[in-house]
Amino acid sequence: MKNAILGIITLLAVSMTAKSQVKIGFEVSFKEPQAHYAEIEMNISGLSKDYIDVKMPVWTPGSYLVREFSKSVEGFAASAGDKALKYEKVRKNTWRIYSAKAASVKVKYRIYGFEISVRTPFIDDAHAFLSTSAVFMYPDGHLKTPSTVKIIPFNGWTKVSTGLEPVAGQQFTYTAPDFDILFDSPIEVGNQEVFDFMAAGVKHEVAMYGGGTYNVERLKVDMKKVIEQETAIYGENPNQHYTFIVHNYASGGGGLEHLNSTVLGAGRDQYSTEEGYIGFLQLVAHEYHHLWNVKRLRPVALGPFDYENENYTTNLWIAEGFTAYYENKIMLRAGFNQPEGFVSEVATALANVENTTGSRIQSVAEASFDAWIKYYRPNENSSNTTVSYYSKGEVVGLLMDLEIANATKGAKSLDDVMKAMYLQCKTLKRGYTDAEFKTMVEKISGINFDDFYAKYVNGTAPVDYVKYFGYAGINITNENTGKKFEETPYLGASFAQKGGAIVVSAVSRNSAAWIGGLNVNDELLSLGNNAVDPRANSLPPMNGKVGEMFKVIVKRDGNIKELSLLLKASPNIKLSTTFNEKATATQLAVRKAWMGI
Predict the structure, then answer these.
(1) Beta strands in 65-192 (DSSP E)
(2) What pLDDT, in 10s, does the model give residues 95-131?
């Protein structure tokens, strides 16, 4: 037995030594950036096998859709010294190289990148954005192996921005301890404007591509406010340095979180207006909050990653929804909003979810799990059958926050749950399970959350918003009530201009349009007795009454069709809020814990 154990230990030691001797280095250059190509060279040494499988991820963490990055690969070739090696493609994202135990293997391929987004590569004659999971391959079984990346900028390009650690003494060369880090570290190459500032004891670098109307000094001050408010929630900032890559286009938006960096999309002129500037800071607040929530405080399914398949979790409502909720709280705490504005905004967010008919069909836990097949692949019926885990998660975060603050009479809030779960994930060195998160909520609040989860997480119950806002001494009312509103007809269809015609773009479940058979893509010819002019800026008035039949004439597949619709009143709500001047001491304590000011 002793000899057997020693044998196993020896084999493990040999295996670990072999893996530690494997070296992987990448070199990225740009021969034809104007045609949107990057040239990738991958050097593998110390992997002496009959064949080596190299793989390209099919998705990028933070964006839950299989994007098939291998579709942008061309010109694949492999060699050992001066000898070309035979290879074959054995899966959609896997190339098998018959290396015949060669000590070192060189792989070359090209990547085409021409999609402007925060999650995909984009290359042109002005710059290159490398979304690394869509650029670099990895040898099968070696996701934990370190690698280096050397960037050779195109002629005239002088800067590289990334969260990767630089290799001392080697310009534009970086190292990653494993592929999880490499795939979580986007790279910007070009002549971007770069500035930095200190916040929460961490150096932050901002790489601005595309120019814009931003004021660097103002951004330094205001971004610092956001960062320090977010760090205060968790008690520590886990990074040594952090990189913002910002793409400023004529029209831009969106963001994608990474472990010590983020990629943001913005309109280059949006900084000129207060609304646009605040919108940018709100995006900063959202993506920076991910530094904790989802990158470290994460569902157990989201890391280590399987880069070849979907990674399913029912908790994106926490990872994304709570982050959407916290961006509003942070903007309030950083001084970019007032309490009245904050309350109005979260009430509007709640109303928007309640007005989404899909919120009665799909729970937020189901929405999280089905992100791979539904959220990123919407169709004309999505609003009737799905709910966004961002939007509904934001509402659940709001309700949970108020529930905790009320149960503890203002002693605790959702902040305490988030900090405790962050520290738990850090201690256990893994993500949380559904049950663990719920247990922590109950521990912090001191009450049972079974009913809450049944209604709002795993169920589709309407929100008792009067109760929840009442906890904080906030009066909330639905403005869409009363005789005038009840007598206003509601068709339940949306329209858009298409090919010189007005066509139906959406039909709301159980509305007059839905029941009466109005279809998406129907060309609208008349409403009631009024002809529709596609050149007009608006539709003719709807002169029907609630409870009456209303005639609509459409063209469907070239045929004229007359429909009779029984008009209804709108089921939608519009919420308004006021602060109760006679709020109790407990309500005021809840309000303070909730808002954090």
Answers:
(1) 73-80, 83-84, 87-91, 94-97, 104-112, 122-123, 128-130, 138-139, 147-151, 159-162, 165-166, 173-176, 187-190
(2) 999 999 999 999 999 999 999 999 999 999 999 999 9
